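Audit log entry. Action: structure prediction of a protein-small molecule complex. Ligand: flavin-adenine dinucleotide. The ligand was supplied as SMILES and no pocket hint was given, so placement is left entirely to the predictor. Protonation state taken as written. Sequence taken verbatim from the request; no trimming, no tag removal. Recorded inputs:
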Amino acid sequence: MRVGIIGAGIGGLTLAQALIAQNIEVIVFDRDLSAEETGGYRLHLSEDALASIREDLPENIEKLLKLSGTGPESFQQFSILNHHGKTKLSFRQTDEEDLLMIGRIPLRKILAIDLEKVIRWDTQFTHYKEEESGITLHFSNAQSEKVDILVGADGVHSAVAKQLLGRSTAKYAGVMGIAGRALLTPQLGSTINKDFFKGPGFAVGPKGIGMFITVHAPKTNNELIAGMDVLEDPYIVWSVAATDKTLRKSFRNLTSDQLEKEAYQLIRHWDESFLELINNSEKGRTAAFPFWYPSNLTRWKHSKITLIGDAIHPMPPTSGLGASTSILDAVNLAEKLVKHDDSSYALQAYQADMLKYAPKAVAEARPPLFWQRRFKNNFIRRFAMSVLLPCVSVVLKIKDSIKK
Ligand SMILES: Cc1cc2nc3c(=O)[nH]c(=O)nc-3n(C[C@H](O)[C@H](O)[C@H](O)COP(=O)(O)OP(=O)(O)OC[C@H]3O[C@@H](n4cnc5c(N)ncnc54)[C@H](O)[C@@H]3O)c2cc1C
């Protein structure tokens, strides 16, 4: 069996590693020039995603990932702040004993270890043709390749999904984010709210504008990864998100500098510490991210072609589960392909499982966007910031002390 994977992103690389570990032949195609050719912000990998990596991928991968990122100590709490920079509520968001915060570039580079011979970079998939003898993949460089099974791991707006299902699998959520990162200098570290050193936070301001902030400070002195060029200097990720009605224009074709200016404009009346993050952003790294939901996450039928990750269930970053769910898909699909000789059965079994956990991950991303819309109403936002969240904070503190 020869499996063709379109997309060497988080899901595609995980799938390639899991299949090769079981001696299944794999070939992966990606339009990027290399693994590091990707936007770089910090991602959260859940306990379940890490367990899947531990069980099904070569042993060294989990170890290298953990050395390149940070663990539960960097996610002790999640904070909600007002736009003056004051914490209104902090709570423990997850009971996970194991989790990983890792930059997207190190994650991708480590997942691509030992795959040099099976990944074809700089190769854009255009369409496929089904034949008796298999599936022929076509690329924009006029090359083609024959495989027995085709997996679309090509992210939001998947070309494989469009041909397979005859429609897009992504529906715009009506919210756009502008995200950037600023190096964590002692000066910048001294200006931000100290709660950000205990975990990520979300600041809420007028007009339903929100700003997500997280400090990413991996240890940088481990010999095992020293030569791999995966260590990142500590940085602060910021992401300003607003609903379409609040935005002055579409961000789609703006440069990094222009996006920084737009983000600054959106929060120009906020506390100086937020503005400083934007002012200190690394040049050329600020990008716009429309938020997506799956357009119709239901069963489909095909005995040789399937979809994993954002290609079938894109989700807003508000649950922090997009990358983790694509890893679960990849490992789940690999296990089914190994277990069942009949590929048709294997693909249906994968789908049945995926359709149980993926909608739950999508559902977890919805409440923050719901509240962001509600907070456009000034009365609701002020009431929440001055009465509701402080009350919840007191109740949580009492509960905590009773527990102790
Ligand atoms: C601002 C923001 C913050 C996020 N934060 C988190 C977080 O904290 N935690 C989390 O778990 N997730 C987060 N996510 C989501 C996460 O990045 C994605 O969900 C995850 O990368 C999905 O993996 P994937 O393999 O499905 O797709 P991707 O990783 O996007 O990979 C798709 C790959 O396909 C390639 N490709 C696309 N089309 C073609 C083609 N035609 N031919 C060849 N190659 C092609 C692309 O180059 C890409 O490499 C965030 C997303 C955003 C926007």
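Audit: result stored. The chain is about 35% helix and 25% strand. The chain has a mean pLDDT of 91.
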